[in-house]
Amino acid sequence: MAVRFFARYREATGRQRLEVDLPEGGTVEAAWAAVVDRHPALSQYRPFTLFAIGNDYVQPDHPLKAGDELCLFPPVSGGSL
Amino acid sequence: MPDLYRIVEEPLSADAVAEAVAAAAAGGIVIFSGVVRNEKDGRPVKYLEYEAHAPMAEAKMLEIGEQVRRRWPSVKAVTMLHRVGRLEIGESSVLIAVSAAHRQEAFEACHYAIDTLKRTVPVWKKEHFEDGEIWVGLQGG
Q1: Is residue A80 part of a domain?
Q2: In this structure, is residue B118 part of a structural domain?
Q3: Segments in A1-81 forming alpha helices (H)
Q4: Is the confidence metric ipTM above 0.95 for this complex?
């Protein structure tokens, strides 16, 4: 399955996407573990990370389907206040 | 005019969003403009960079607009625009316009919309200083 990185995470990994292999029914948390395996620099950010699939946030225990694209977000900081 | 929720790369115009929410039955229009300021905790800022997950950001702004309409039924129209890319000091990064029958609903709805946007819409801000840069929203790193 595909993982996409945004903002700080894109810069920290030096990439926008990563393909990871997960067993059927693997969770978001398992995908995170696979990503951190490849990019250990991200591990410190786990408590702050937001996960999304499509246009919706998902929880760490959310099961992933083949073809899902998991987005990893740092905390959002839009606006200008 | 239908409600409008967009991530854009061009400069934002307060006049244009006021026009977009104009309605014959609206007695008040409130516009919030978030502006790039020239300092952060006393440190001079050179410019800002914004990045978004555009499709999801637009979907989340639409959700906010739907919440606004449920909560304040007298709201006539909503527009939410967030700019991405490099922004200079004094430029507007976000514009929210709400028209309503009466001013109180327009103020409340606009306030709710910007506060919710900052919590839920996937947009990230990077501050560029003379001597470095930092992504906002996470201490350290």
Answers
A1: no
A2: yes
A3: 8-13, 28-38
A4: no
